[in-house]
Amino acid sequence: MSALNLSFAIFIVVAASFIVYVIVKKIKHKYFLDALKLKLLSVKLAKKYEKSEKDDWIKEVNLSGQLASILINLKVPFSLESAVNYIGEEIFFYVAVPGDSMQFVMRQIQGLWPDAQVEEVDDYNIFNNTGFSTGVYLKQKHNVVLPIRTFEEA
């Protein structure tokens, strides 16, 4: 009788493990599909031609950090992009977020940069036959439990 109980217990553990595996796969699949349904926002910032204070760049870095923190706290997939369209020196910024978070993100950007123009746009082509494309990603060198340093600490 104990061999039968042991066999039944092993069957239950294997069945439960399989069910958990299937559920995790479905959640990851849904997360991946949600990442493909992002809406693209174009963010145009006003140019500052005057050389005011030398600490202006610190303010911009802090504002960018606040935006990243807001996007991370949404706990949804997002993308931040910067691009130079065609030929020129004007830099365009893009934020891709899920459709239900779009209005919230637009308001947050307007709150951080009051003179910014934020609008929904169709996707753009990043490839230019006379240009080039680069990409970067952030990865921690050491233990992932340790926080990422700010520009002041680095």
Order of helices and strands: HEHEEHE
Low confidence ranges: none
Shape: elongated
Number of helices: 3
* Helix content range: 40-55%
Instruction: Report the C-alpha radius of gyration, rounded.
Output: 23 Å
Q: What's the count of strands?
A: 4
Termini separation (Å)? 65 Å
Query: Kindly state the mean pLDDT as a whole number?
Result: 76
Described by strand count, sense and barrel closure, the largest sheet is: 4 strands, antiparallel
Return the structural class: alpha+beta
List keywords for this structure.
4-stranded antiparallel β-sheet, 17% strand, 154 residues, alpha+beta
Question: Could you characterize what this model shows?
Answer:
- This protein has 154 residues and is α+β, with helices and mostly antiparallel strands.
- It contains three helices and four strands, in the order H-E-H-E-E-H-E.
- It has a four-stranded antiparallel β-sheet, covered by helices on one side.
Fold blueprint:
Layout: H1 2-35, E1 38-44, H2 56-73, E2 79-84, E3 91-98, H3 102-112, E4 117-121
Antiparallel strand pairs: 1-3, 1-4, 2-3
Helix pairs in contact: 2-3
Brief summary:
By secondary structure, this protein is α+β, with helices and mostly antiparallel strands.
